[in-house]
Specification:
Layout lengths: L1 H65 L2 H37 L5 H22 L2 E3 L5 E4 L4 E4 L7
Antiparallel strand pairs: 1-2, 2-3
């Protein structure tokens, strides 16, 4: 029985190896087919987006032709305002990142450390300005005006009265 069992085990091992080969080939073929399907779906999605964009552009041209000139001028003015706001936001974001980087370079890595450092820096600047008898204003126009006798806060809102 030992020989027959060995033959049987060899036969099982060969069958298992063949099945593994077949499974590997099948999985490779399925993987290629899956990748091709995904590429086709991605191309279809891109084509749909391009078609929607073309349709949207045509619709926008039709609507733009129907808009009264004064409304069109107001829209252009609003676009300019939005662009200016975007630039201002980008500039403020850049300043915030630079400030944060500077604080990190100074060794302040946690929020409480950063806030404490900024408070100390602001207090030092205000003290120096007070000693010089100057006023301290930030970019918004808000700040403190120092004199020898008292401290008063002023706010420049940019609105005329």
């Amino acid at each position: 029985m030992g020989k027959q069992q060995k033959k049987f085990e060899k036969k099982k091992a060969r069958e298992k190896a063949v099945q593994t080969k077949i499974r590997t080939r099948r999985e490779a073929k399925q993987k290629k087919e899956r990748e091709l399907r995904q590429e086709a779906q991605a191309l279809d999605a891109v084509n749909k987006l391009v078609k929607k964009r073309v349709d949207l552009e045509q619709w926008a041209k039709e609507v733009e032709g129907k808009i009264p000139p004064d409304t069109h001028a107001q829209i252009q003015k609003n676009i300019e305002i939005l662009k200016a706001l975007e630039e201002e936001y980008a500039q403020e974001l850049k300043q915030k990142v630079e400030l944060q980087d500077r604080l990190h370079d100074q060794g302040h890595h946690t929020l409480p450390d950063m806030l404490e450092a900024l408070q100390t820096q602001t207090a030092d600047e205000q003290k120096a300005a007070h000693e010089a008898g100057e006023s301290v204003f930030d970019e918004t126009g808000a700040g403190a005006v120092y004199s020898d006798s008292s401290v008063s806060l002023t706010m420049n809102t940019g609105l005329s009265e």
